[in-house]
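quick one: FE2/S2 (inorganic) cluster bound model?
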Amino acid sequence: MNTLIIDCRVNGVKQQLSVTPAMPLSDVLRAQGYLSIKQGCCVGECGACTVLVDGVAIDSCLYLAVWAQGKSIRTVEGERVNGKPSHVQKAFAESGAVQCGFCTPGFIMATTALLAKPRSQPMTVMQIRQGLAGNLCRCTGYQMVVEAVQECESSAQ
Ligand code: FES
Ligand code: FES
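yep, here:
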């Protein structure tokens, strides 16, 4: 199997990653120790493997690692700011949007991308639900996740 070296940034740090053409990004990053990336379904249904690539939330189980050449990747490991949780992480914890935690890294990254989109007014509940529709949770029933996103929006104003 051909092995290729790709250059990218992971959480702001330049990396050279050894990949094969068919390897999903989730496998490559987990092998590097980014274990926040969960492998739930591995077919693009659950969002547990969500990371940001150049600011866009993607399912890393469906994203070939070779596509990350030259790109900037963010995972939950890089979200702490000066050793403290990001406002999204804090809001999830304070709203009770974390139970078993399996889906949480994916939700945190998807929420981070959702909140970064420019908008003139806070999202409606339906917009939040639609924005996070690619992320599944078996524990929380989603209401606390919605509340966490609302908390982020209100604290940003
Ligand atoms: S593990 Fe990637 S979407 Fe489920
Ligand atoms: S907190 Fe358990 S799956 Fe979401």
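The chain has two domains: 4-76, 87-156.
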